[in-house]
Amino acid sequence: MYPNVYYSASALHAVHSSPALDITFASLRVMVCALLRSQRTLPKPRPSGTYESTIDVFFALAILFVMREQVAEYLKNVTISSRKQLFDALNFIAPLIDVWSLAAPKSGQQFLRFSSAKSRTTGYVDFTIPKKTGGVRKISAPVKPLKEVQSAINTLLQLIFIPDEHATGFVLGKSVKDNALIHVGQTCIFNTDLENFFPSITKKMVRRALHTELGHILNSNDVINTICRLCTVPNSDGIEVLPQGAPTSPILSNIVLAGLDRDMAKLADRMECKYSRYADDITLSHSKPVRKMSSYLQSKIHRIILKYGLKVNEIKTKTYVPGRRQEVTGVVVSSKINVARTYVKNLRILLHLWEKYGYIQAQLIFIRDFCHGKEKNLENVIDGKINYLEMIKGKDDSTYLKFKRRLKLLQYKERQKTTYTKRAI
After folding, report:
1. Among residues 32, 70, 213, 222, which one has the fewest Cβ atoms lying within 10 Å of its Cβ?
2. How much of the chain is in helix, strand and coil states, percent to nearest 5?
3. C-alpha distances in angstroms, 216 versus 24, 51, 91, 93?
4. Neighbours of 347 (CB within 10 A)
5. Are 192 and 178 spatial neighbours (Cβ–Cβ below 8 Å)?
6. How far is CA 26 from CA 20, 31, 285, 407, in A?
7. What is the C-alpha to C-alpha distance for residues 156 and 176, in angstroms, rounded to an integer?
8. Predicted confidence band at 52 (pLDDT cuts at 50, 70, 90)?
9. Is 393 left (phi over 0), alpha (psi -120 to 50) or beta?
10. DSSP SS3 for 122
């Protein structure tokens, strides 16, 4: 439970154990009002109205985390028709994700602080990070007030938007493992990448997609335009695009590409292929005797991508056939999913450095030889790699268990050494 969510345990239990299976507006109103009245720390109702008279979405989102499926079903018939209703919904979502308190709701002026293109140019801190394939990637990180608003918008969109079943990136409960499993055992795997992904998605594309995919809920141009303005930033040419670094960009990209996913899935069905998309990585595969992806199918894929205003990254376009290591979003796929041999080898090297030289010396070697001088925590990196290994290979895998035991032993010895040093002092 988040620290700023003013719900008592008893009130939550009463809601969670409610015998009602059908969520109606009346039942939502009763349950949420009971929660609100049970809290002494809540502010008095605003003069403009009481908590009992707030819009339907306001109440539905209140019990999101205890009755998520029922609330999501209920929201299919709810509409947000004005900016005031949007702001009320965001003010109620915010405490659930711990971005601001229910006791201190944001005003309309605070929400719209970054709504103009000029104000949004100062609403981000730009920096670059190195790409694995070389070059640098520009990150536009929103300043705290803007990030808070975007985080609330992100939660609202995640609640009301149902991603296409073929989208596996930026989707709750799905990972690169789910994306790879779709293509296990195929004779031919075709991978391509969408070039310059987030900055290629313009405000115009976002607005069109919100109308198409969520217009039945966000049924006001004013509401959709407000979301678009708060979640895009002007690029060097003055075109407003999704910033790489904003919490809303992933969900908005899935909304924009929902139509592409449907078109790709239809094409894959016609060609007896399997299709999946993980963020900007598009994969199609088949198990036909002909071990190649036809030029006709590749041209169709390119046309669909161009139809949605995006470009193919030709450098990252590859076709994998048996006899060559087949990969999908970095996961090896054959008769089962696995990690690359180099992944296991690098993990083994890092553990060996720690075992041979001790943690302090191993940390220095790691930064010098593996991170190009950039500060990274060796223990955290090893732990993350082992957790990834567990996700891909499973918790009963012998390789994973062996590495996990080695790490725990090293951590135990390091704690013992620290304890002895403190006692000596």
Report:
1. 222
2. 50, 15, 35
3. 19, 25, 22, 20
4. 21
5. no
6. 12, 9, 49, 54
7. 24
8. very low
9. alpha
10. coil
Question: In this structure, what token pair is assigned to residue 158?
Answer: 């995640």
Task: Give dist(CA 206, CA 240) in Å, integer.
Answer: 10
Terminal C-alpha separation, the chain = 40
Task: Place 203 in a pLDDT band, splitting at 50, 70 and 90.
Answer: very high
Average pLDDT, the chain: 84
Query: Is the confidence at residue 45, as pLDDT, over 80?
Result: no
pTM score over 0.90: no
| Cβ neighbours around 62 below 10 Å, total | 27
Secondary structure element (H or E) that encloses residue 347, with its range: helix 341-357
Other CB atoms within 10 Å distance of the CB of residue 229: 19
Query: For residue 189, what is the enclosing H or E element?
Result: strand 188-194
pLDDT in tens, 368-421: 999 877 889 999 999 999 999 999 999 999 999 999 999 999 999 999 988 877
Enter the tokens of residue 88: 């009320």
Interatomic CA distance for residues 265 and 165, integer angstroms:
10
Asked if residue 37 has pLDDT above 50, the reply is no
And the tokens for 16? Answer: 């969670």
Which of the two residues, 64 and 90, has the higher pLDDT score? 90
DSSP state of 162: -
Six-digit token pair at 23?
């969520």
User: Can you spell out the DSSP letters for 49-111?
Assistant: --GGGS-HHHHHHHTTTTSHHHHHHHHTT----SHHHHHHHHHHHHHHTTSS-TTSPPPHHHH
Tokens 């391509």 belong to 192
Q: HSE on the CB side for 109, CA within 13 Å? A: 0
Instruction: Work out the pLDDT band at 98, boundaries 50, 70, 90.
Output: confident
- Helices 83-96 and 144-160, interaxial angle, to 10°? 100
- In this structure, what DSSP letter does residue 324 have? S
Q: How far is CA 193 from CA 295, 321, 385, in A?
A: 17, 18, 24
> Helices 83-96 and 221-231 meet at what angle, rounded to 10?
50
DSSP at 43: P
pLDDT tens digits, residue range 314-355? 999 999 987 788 999 999 998 899 999 999 999 999 999 999
Residues β-bridged to residue 44 = none
Quick check: 236 and 195 in contact, CB under 8 A? no
> What's the CA gap between 131 and 128, in Å, rounded?
9
